[in-house]
Amino acid sequence: MLDEVKAWGLKPETVTGDSWYAAKETMNTLKDKGFRGLFAPHRKFGSETPPF
Question: Which of 19, 38, 39, 49 is the most buried (most CB within 10 A)?
């Protein structure tokens, strides 16, 4: 997907995502392709915890 985005002519600097995707292999791939990663930590779901 990252290669496809670059093929479109876009030049994003940062990729965002959930911490679920913040594996070492993913982070190394981002670095190798010239991207930075910004991942949200420990999101909680449920009716007892407000989202903010």
Answer: 39
